[in-house]
Design a protein that fits this description.
Helices cover 33% and strands 23% of the residues. It is an alpha+beta fold. The chain has one domain: Jelly Rolls. The radius of gyration is 18 Å and the shape is globular. 30% of the residues are buried. The structure holds zinc ion. The site of zinc ion has 5 residues, from strand 4.
Length: 215
């Protein structure tokens, strides 16, 4: 397996700083579990962050920020998904297994039409995360994005224009992207998709069912 679409340093830094909504945290943690090169970049960033903190003058850390940090630790405010340090064989990497309560067999799929299934994962804040099961060759409807969308492939692959996304790859979409992903013919594609705003479908049928799918 070779991951060709890695998450950029900007998102890794935001993840390290605990600045991402839980749904995107989960995508990044899962990606890092599946992609050793991204994991190496993350470890380097983390080490760099530690060095910067150690060399910063103490006065720069206000009492307020220390209090906030301690409150965060005490209250466990942002439950960051646990990073897996071990290799994973299951379709679901360790951070995701915690959310579904087991392996891929534990996922409670709901059909959304055309053979596509989804399982919405419980999140503590506004951004949403779902597992998607897309039969080989099935097309996702044309859509734009009201905000950020991160899609991590867990099994199979999907094609988007000239790009192919396989296991461990992440596609990032934003307000400027309109696309039409298609699952690669053959085996089904299973993805983890996180969004912080509703998708913008161009077809009437997807728009009609959108409220029911909470997408
Ligand atoms: Zn999209």
């Amino acid at each position: 397996m070779q991951v060709t679409h890695q998450i950029g340093d900007d998102f890794l830094a935001a993840y390290a700083a605990g600045q991402l909504p839980e749904a995107f945290d989960l995508v990044v943690a899962s990606h890092l579990s599946l992609c050793p090169p991204a994991r190496e970049r993350y470890d380097a960033l983390e080490a760099l962050g530690g060095t910067v903190l150690e060399s910063a003058p103490e006065a720069e850390m206000s009492a307020g920020s220390l209090e906030a940090t301690l409150a965060r630790i005490a209250g466990g405010a942002s439950p960051q998904p646990e990073l897996a340090r071990t290799k994973t064989c299951d379709v679901l990497p360790a951070p995701l297994r915690d959310y579904v309560g087991g392996s891929i067999e534990s996922v409670k799929w709901r059909p959304v039409g055309m053979g596509v299934k989804q399982a919405i994962l419980p999140m503590s804040d506004g951004a949403s995360a779902r597992l998607l099961y897309i039969p080989g060759g099935a097309e996702m409807p044309d859509h734009g994005h009201g905000g950020l969308e991160m899609t991590l492939v867990l099994k199979g692959a999907f094609l988007d224009g000239a790009d192919r996304f396989g296991r461990g790859d992440v596609e990032i979409g934003d307000e400027d992207l309109v696309h039409h992903p298609v699952a690669e013919a053959g085996e089904p594609c299973i993805c983890l998709a996180a969004t912080d705003a509703p998708l913008k479908f161009s077809g009437w049928l997807p728009r009609l069912v959108q409220p029911f799918l909470k997408i």
